[in-house]
Specification:
Number of domains: 1
Number of strands: 5
Shape: globular
Strand order of the largest sheet: 3-1-4
Radius of gyration: 15 Å
Order of helices and strands: HEEHEHHEEH
Largest sheet: 3 strands, mixed
Number of helices: 5
Distance between the termini: 25 Å
Length: about 150
């Protein structure tokens, strides 16, 4: 969850309930029902949305918001995905966590949320973070193909 209130804390009970009802990973999704982003420039919305399209294409995950940071993980997921193997630090971290859960056969469920851009602080988005995500997704896919994930 973002600490700048881009994610509404009132949505937390729904994420928790989703995990308690059988999902291993509950994802607060900006894109499962259209585009639910407030106060982002169009360029940022497009970058985020098409990043998820790219991730779905490469990984085969059928979730609309692969870079979402508003996520509830069931304890069993965290115990089995190999947290010590997580390598990415930018937005690719969010993708890697979901892909490792997906690769282990866990059920991922998206819950529609409304994401409102921060009013304080600034984005960490950079060229390095984009590069990590683009090439990192390919790296994750190759690791899975060769049973090294």
């Amino acid at each position: 969850m973002d600490a700048d209130f881009s994610h509404n804390p009132k949505d937390l009970p729904l994420l928790l309930k989703t995990c308690q009802s059988g999902a291993a990973v509950a994802i607060g999704s900006r894109y499962v029902k259209g585009v639910n982003v407030v106060n982002w420039p169009l360029s940022r919305v497009l970058l985020s949305y098409f990043a998820s399209v790219y991730v779905r294409f490469i990984t085969g995950m059928q979730i609309m918001d692969t870079t979402a940071g508003f996520v509830c993980y069931h304890r069993s997921v965290l115990e089995k995905i190999g947290l010590d193997k997580i390598k990415f630090v930018g937005y690719a971290f969010q993708i890697e966590m979901k892909y490792r859960a997906y690769s282990k056969g866990f059920k991922l469920v998206e819950i529609p949320i409304i994401f409102t851009d921060r009013t304080k602080g600034k984005s960490k988005m950079s060229g390095g973070i984009i590069k990590e995500a683009v090439f990192g997704v390919l790296q994750l896919r190759f690791k899975k193909i060769f049973n090294q994930l």
